[in-house]
């Protein structure tokens, strides 16, 4: 072969080179996007459908036109719910409960995690594992005995615990504290021990080490744990369903279901609006703090 | 400023004794270096002085007061850690002032001390930065600043230069010495690097396996080691150790290294060594710097060793030569222009004024 | 370690009495214990005690006055619904977890394949089912499955397929429950597996490629073994949570039609709270214990193994 023909043989190949991705890689990428889009459709259809329905009037819904499209969009459902004192009561109850439970949870978890991860005392290892195990005891096992316990408590002390929204403040921490403690133990354990020692040499006592060194350094973990506690509290369904019945005591998940469904008539437009608004707080937190949210999830398993 | 004493201090971890009873007296303003291989107990000793480890037996006395049960924060000591241990979420200024802020010092006093320490360490422009924005050397300076600012009785250094690269290490070594000259505080410094020990210390404490091998000035340790371990640990390249026999020939003592090599013992040492004639297990010790090319200026007490050079390492200011005597590798240092090369048959002069005779069994230098 | 800091004096002869309380307060173990006390109290009173109390309740009669021993359990064993509940709970849990794991694994791979800039976006979108409170999303599915207005049936109708009774027919109802379960849970698996995928060093794959491995072999010999721990732990976690799930069945089918989708949680709610027979409800929920205990043992073993591997 002459040099010239070699040169021409090379050129087409170099012209076809697109960036530095080979053909195989490009096809793999295309298939990936294709399947990801498919799965995205699968995962996002319900929320999108919720939105679509929420923009429909009852008339349009019962007219049974294309359910996947809004022909006469209206914000009527939103206006009704946002001005309904009942719905706002649900929202208020949920918000109150969630915020207070988050506070209680962090007040219990953080010192406990600090003690369990840093201060070796007799039984700390067993206790840490025990905390983790309690997370595995489901609320569906406990709600019945708790129900009876509260009834007995009422008989003995006269304090009514059933059907009060603040009873949830006692119950929800059992769901959030074990896992939050576990997350914080993981984050605290990853702080190098020399930092403790440096602080000790600088003259700090244990309380100061916790507040001035550990909490600031483990802040991402704190945020992740807070988000977790909030999300769990907000979404709780079983405990409120079992323990609260009067309309003004209900939190959002239960409230929507029991009061928007009047008899046999389901006002789906309003129900979907209510559900979407109810899903909004966790979604908004997720949108802004996605990395912390995910860190909270993966911390539990990967940190073991 | 303080005087520190350790009296029969022992540290036990479960069943093992990391520190087996050490006695040490450190004078006020003295710079003492604890040096030894890893696992010798030097860091543990330092941490016991700091209060970060409990003392299993014995006493640690500071300025006449037994401090075994005094918590670290009340001992008025400051420590510089190997990994700097800077608070990642605080600025340099906040890191340095943390201890003072905990004790509620007035703000202007804090500012004064921090700026003074920053000036001494040349980190004034870094005061607003966070640790992750600093280089290793800068972080180490901040760690030192944190210690200086508290004006403690004792400075404790736990292998502070181990994480720095070689060049930076040399620079920081000089820094530390400079700082000690300015801020004359009793200092206990732990390192595994004997060069650091020799260059920084007023006195060096060589430790091995939980006990003190020897305490002395750098010079003492270099010229008059009392154990084989110290002799081999101090100095780089390390001292040559060759099994030998002490023989008597014509009323003069002779060190026999092999069939062919016999070195005359200087008469100054004859009295000291004569009881050990014929003893087995003797070891001849000589530093490479005392094994040079034969010079014609008639130095006293020279022994000639003839050898075939196996390896040469030119270092610029000198050349290291390696050969074997009866299977034992020996190192010598010759002038760079001595024209040495592998395979050269050479005569080397051993300066026997600097020789050491060691009892192999006990490790003691005779 | 830092134990030395707060230990009380051990020297003989030093008068300690007037420092007694002060020292006791300073003792590290006292502080540590005080810090964990709220946690211990919470768990003891509201988790451990009710769990045992449940055992006691299960041995009482309906009005909770008489002790009937195993009476409730025998009663349950004889009822056909009970065995349906057992079967359904197990099938739902196992099937759902298998599908969640598979889908999660596949999706995680696709997300891992695309350049990292886009990964965040896709990851964000795909996790949405997990973020929405299950109660809300189940309402949406209920609406999607509505007998008269089902949006799915509308699509089927366009292809001239007859409408499906998603919640009305026993077998379709079971399918629907599993489907919603998988929809909610697969994203969680995806996130976990994605994190695990990222932790496998790229160099292992490069070495394998040079050695001539194709993608299936790389998957089998590198990816799966490295991810074994995460796969196991996530599956076990999910098994427990899915097994004890309440929200989905309750909202979607309320256990129907004719008890064909009841699981332990919903049935015990039905009997205990709605039916007023607390001991019976307690008995039903107690049957979850054996499965939970077995799963917990496996999880513990895995944690200990990883703990000792790490050290």
General description of the model:
Chain A folds into two domains: 38-74, no CATH class; 77-302, MetI-like (MetI-like fold, Orthogonal Bundle), CATH 1.10.3720. In chain A, a hairpin with a 2-residue loop joins strand 1 and strand 2. Chain A is globular, with a radius of gyration of 27 Å. With 304 residues, chain A is mainly alpha-helical. Chain A has helices at 3-16, 23-54, 58-62, 76-83, 85-118, 124-134, 139-157, 167-171, 173-189, 193-201, 206-217, 219-235, 238-243, 252-260, 268-288, 290-302; strands at residues 261-262, 265-266. Residues 1-20 of chain A have low confidence and may be disordered. Chain B is α+β, with helices and mostly antiparallel strands and 366 residues long. Chain B has two domains: 4-233, P-loop containing nucleotide triphosphate hydrolases (Rossmann fold); 240-359, OB fold (Dihydrolipoamide Acetyltransferase, E2P) (Beta Barrel). In chain B, a hairpin with a 2-residue loop joins strand 1 (4-13) and strand 2 (16-26). In chain C, helix 4 (80-113) packs parallel to helix 9, helix 4 packs antiparallel against helix 11 and helix 9 crosses helix 11 (215-243). The radius of gyration of chain C is 26 Å and the shape is globular. The model of chain C is unreliable at 1-22 (pLDDT under 50). Classes of the chains: A mainly alpha (304), B alpha+beta (366), C mainly alpha (311). Chains in contact: A-B, A-C, B-C. Chains A and C meet through helix 2, helix 5, helix 6, helix 7 and helix 9 of A and helix 2, helix 4, helix 5, helix 6 and helix 7 of C.
């Amino acid at each position: 072969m002459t040099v010239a023909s070699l040169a021409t043989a090379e050129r087409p190949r170099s012209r076809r080179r697109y960036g530095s991705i080979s053909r195989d890689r490009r096809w793999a990428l295309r298939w990936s996007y294709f399947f990801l889009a498919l799965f995205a459709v699968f995962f996002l259809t319900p929320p999108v459908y919720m939105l679509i329905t929420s923009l429909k009037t009852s008339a349009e819904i019962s007219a049974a036109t294309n359910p996947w499209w809004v022909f006469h969009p209206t914000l009527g459902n939103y206006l009704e719910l946002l001005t309904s004192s009942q719905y706002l009561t649900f929202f208020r109850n949920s918000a109150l409960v969630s915020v207070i439970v988050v506070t209680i949870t962090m007040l219990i978890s953080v010192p406990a995690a600090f003690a369990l991860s840093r201060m070796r005392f007799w039984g700390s290892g067993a206790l840490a594992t025990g905390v983790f195990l309690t997370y595995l005891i489901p609320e569906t096992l406990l709600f019945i005995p708790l129900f009876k316990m509260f009834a007995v408590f009422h008989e003995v002390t006269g304090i009514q615990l059933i059907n009060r929204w603040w009873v949830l403040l006692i119950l929800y921490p059992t769901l959030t504290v074990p896992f939050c403690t576990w997350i914080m133990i993981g984050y605290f354990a990853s702080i190098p021990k020399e930092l403790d020692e440096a602080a000790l040499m600088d003259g700090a006592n244990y309380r100061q080490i916790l507040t001035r060194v550990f909490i600031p350094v483990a802040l991402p973990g704190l945020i992740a744990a807070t988000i977790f506690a909030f999300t769990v509290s907000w979404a709780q369904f079983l405990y409120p369903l079992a323990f609260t019945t009067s309309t003004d005591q209900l939190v959002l998940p239960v409230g929507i279901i029991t009061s928007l469904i009047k008899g046999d008539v389901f006002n789906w437009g309003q129900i979907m609006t209510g559900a979407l608004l109810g899903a909004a707080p966790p979604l908004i937190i997720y949108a802004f703090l996605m990395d912390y949210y995910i860190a909270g999830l993966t911390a539990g398993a990967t940190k073991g | 400023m303080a005087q520190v004493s350790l009296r029969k201090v022992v540290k036990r971890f479960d069943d093992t004794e990391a520190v087996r009873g050490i006695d040490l007296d450190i004078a006020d303003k003295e710079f003492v270096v604890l040096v030894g291989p890893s696992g010798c107990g030097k860091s543990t000793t330092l941490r016991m002085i700091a209060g970060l480890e409990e003392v299993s037996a014995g006493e640690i006395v500071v300025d006449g007061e037994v401090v075994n049960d005094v918590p670290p924060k009340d001992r008025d000591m400051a420590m510089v850690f190997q990994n700097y241990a800077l608070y990642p979420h605080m600025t340099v200024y906040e890191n340095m002032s943390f201890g003072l802020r905990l004790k509620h010092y007035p703000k202007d006093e804090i500012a004064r001390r921090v700026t003074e320490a920053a000036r001494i360490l040349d980190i004034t422009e870094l005061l607003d930065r966070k640790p992750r924005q600093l280089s290793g050397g800068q972080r180490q300076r901040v760690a030192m600043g944190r210690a200086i600012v508290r004006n403690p009785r004792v400075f404790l250094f736990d292998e502070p230069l181990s994480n720095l690269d070689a060049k930076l290490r040399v620079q920081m070594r000089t820094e530390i010495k400079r700082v000690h000259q300015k801020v004359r505080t009793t200092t206990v410094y732990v390192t595994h690097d004997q060069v650091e020990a020799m260059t920084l210390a007023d006195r060096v404490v060589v430790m091995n396996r939980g006990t003190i091998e020897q305490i002395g000035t750098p010079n003492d340790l270099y010229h008059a080691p009392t154990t084989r371990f110290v002799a081999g640990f101090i100095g780089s390249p390390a001292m040559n150790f060759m099994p030998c026999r002490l023989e008597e020939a014509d009323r003069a003592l002779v060190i026999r290294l092999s069939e062919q090599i016999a070195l005359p013992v200087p008469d100054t040492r004859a009295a000291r060594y004569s009881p050990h004639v014929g003893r087995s297990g003797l070891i001849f010790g000589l530093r490479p710097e005392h094994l040079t090319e034969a010079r014609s200026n008639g130095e006293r007490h020279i022994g000639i060793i003839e050898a075939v050079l196996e390896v040469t390492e030119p270092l610029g200011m000198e050349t290291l030569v390696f050969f074997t005597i009866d299977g034992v590798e020996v190192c010598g240092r010759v002038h760079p222009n001595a024209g040495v090369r592998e395979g050269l048959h050479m005569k080397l002069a051993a300066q026997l004024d600097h020789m050491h005779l060691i009892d192999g069994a006990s490790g003691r230098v005779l | 370690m830092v134990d030395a800091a707060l230990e009380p004096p051990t020297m003989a002869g030093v008068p300690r009495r007037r420092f007694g309380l002060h020292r006791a307060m300073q003792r590290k173990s006292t502080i540590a214990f005080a810090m964990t006390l709220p946690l211990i109290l919470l768990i003891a009173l509201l988790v451990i005690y009710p769990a045992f109390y449940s055992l006691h309740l299960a041995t009482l009669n309906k009005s909770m006055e008489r002790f009937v021993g195993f009476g409730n359990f025998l009663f349950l064993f004889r009822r056909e619904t009970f065995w349906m509940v057992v079967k359904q709970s197990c099938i739902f849990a196992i099937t759902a977890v298998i599908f969640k794991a598979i889908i999660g694994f596949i999706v995680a791979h696709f997300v891992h394949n695309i350049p990292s800039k886009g990964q965040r976006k896709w990851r964000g979108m795909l996790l949405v089912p997990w973020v929405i409170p299950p109660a809300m999303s189940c309402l949406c599915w209920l609406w999607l499955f509505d007998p008269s207005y089902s949006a799915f049936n509308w699509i089927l109708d366009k292809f001239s397929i007859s409408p499906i009774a998603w919640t009305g027919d026993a077998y379709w109802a079971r399918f629907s429950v599993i489907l919603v379960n998988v929809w909610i849970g697969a994203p969680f698996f995806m996130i976990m597996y994605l994190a695990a995928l990222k932790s496998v060093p790229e160099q292992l794959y490069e070495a394998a490629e040079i050695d001539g491995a194709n993608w299936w072999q790389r998957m089998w010999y590198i990816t799966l073994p490295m991810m074994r721990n995460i796969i196991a732990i996530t599956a076990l976690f999910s098994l427990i949570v899915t097994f004890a799930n309440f929200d989905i069945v309750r909202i979607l089918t309320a256990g129907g039609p004719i008890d064909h989708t009841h699981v332990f949680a919903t049935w015990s709610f039905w009997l205990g709270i709605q039916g007023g027979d607390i001991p019976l409800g307690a008995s039903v929920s107690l049957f979850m214990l054996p499965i939970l205990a077995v799963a917990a043992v496996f999880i513990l073993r895995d944690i200990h193994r990883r703990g000792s591997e790490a050290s």
